[in-house]
Amino acid sequence: MNRKHVAVLLCTFLLLFHVTGCSKHEPHLSQSRLDKAKPIRLYGNEASAQTMFPSKYPSSIGVIVNKSIYLPQTYKPQDLVYPDVPFLFQEKIEKRQLRSEAAMALKKMFVAAKKDGVYLSGVSGYRSYDTQKWLFERYMKRDGYLEAMKYSALPGTSEHQTGLAIDVSGADGKCAVSSCFANTKEAQWLSQHSAEYGYIIRYASGKEHITGYKYEPWHIRYIGPSKLALDMHKRGVCLEEYYNVYSAK
What we know:
This protein is an alpha+beta fold and 249 residues long. It has nine helices and six strands.
């Protein structure tokens, strides 16, 4: 058996191992470690750090999902709606949806951007566990397991499943979900103003060692009251740092 065959078998084994772990609905981090995690500051109706973890509270607006913390396989938000904002496509399909609170905030943000001469469009919002599984397997077959892990989430670890995250682009779709988006005026506007509407750039530049993903200026995540997002923006921290949660790696 040559090295190429060994590598393919190893990648397949690792994927099956992770997917099997997801099906058990258990995070990689023990609950005792999660219970000890304390936020720097809590706002709104958040009562304790536990409300942020998907093993018990998958529908919390402040939920944290990363490569180490899984959503239940069967979780689907009950308040998904179609945001009243433009998308790069017209069909009313799964990825056009967001949770209602996030959708309302997104609309306000798009309206504000338009007033500043920046025209945004949605690319991909909610994504089910099964859809994420299909996507990751496709990426793995194309690029290999290790490379796919740099930009795609294993099923159960995608923020898109929360219904609180969305990929956005300019209205022309230029550089949509691509690294060149970072150089567009739309990306610059989002970096400066998204926090005013409760959204953060979830996978920020320089935080790859914590989030586990490369810089994605197009991936924004709704986290609740704008003062929380603004505080994170001011501190220059990512979600894991803000709530003092173990990094995704």
